[in-house]
Specification:
By secondary structure, the protein is an alpha+beta fold. About 20% of the residues lie in helices and about 35% in strands.
Length: about 200
């Protein structure tokens, strides 16, 4: 039998030193590749950014799907104004709805509610805050949402003696999400008799 060419060469015969060199080289490659991987913090931040972007594009809660705590008797409840935005800074969208009982004459008191969409996509929106209750006997004239600030212009009455067709109190009320709740601030009320 004739020997194969190269059998006499040292590098063709495995020795323990060859195995040790191969294992060391393989360990070095694994160590370097782990340094080139993105860190867990970066991967988590990217995943969180993706979640936030998805939440922002979610549709605003629809007031037509909410049962408001307003008793209108035989009349229907009307959603007269609505505006949406990210009020709590979490990347989601909330809706502010102004509602009142339907009336052919006069202006019934308004209610102002903040709605949020539960995580279940087919669930009805829920009321997360009442900014103006109908029991306050105020009529909302204007609603605006600018960033995290909700503002409404309301009309009311300074006393029970004021005729119901002539509201004499006019003010702008604002709310902003702070410390886990809506904090109210308002401009001074003006009455029809002021400055006369």
């Amino acid at each position: 039998m004739q020997p194969l060419a190269g059998q006499d060469l040292l590098h063709t015969q495995p020795h323990p030193m060859h195995w040790l060199a191969t294992a060391t080289a393989l360990s070095a490659v694994i160590a370097v590749s782990s340094l080139l991987q993105p860190s867990a913090t970066t991967a988590t931040a990217k995943a969180a950014g993706t979640t936030r972007a998805t939440a922002v594009t979610a549709p605003a809660p629809d007031p037509a799907r909410v049962t408001f705590p307003v008793n209108c008797g035989p009349n229907r409840l009307d959603v007269v104004q609505k505006a949406s935005g990210d009020l709590d800074g979490t990347g989601g969208t909330q809706t502010v709805a102004v509602v009142r009982c339907h009336s052919e004459v006069g202006t019934p008191p308004s209610g102002v509610y903040v709605l949020a969409q539960p995580s279940a996509p087919k669930a009805a929106p829920r009321i997360v805050a009442t900014l103006v209750a109908p029991a306050q006997r105020l009529s909302v004239q204007d609603l605006a949402v600018q960033g995290p600030v909700v503002s409404v212009t309301v009309q009311g009455y300074s006393s029970p003696d004021v005729p119901r067709y002539m509201p004499d109190v006019h003010k702008t009320v604002k709310w902003q999400w702070q410390g886990g709740k809506f904090v109210q601030s308002e401009l001074p009320a003006t009455t029809a008799t002021e400055g006369a």
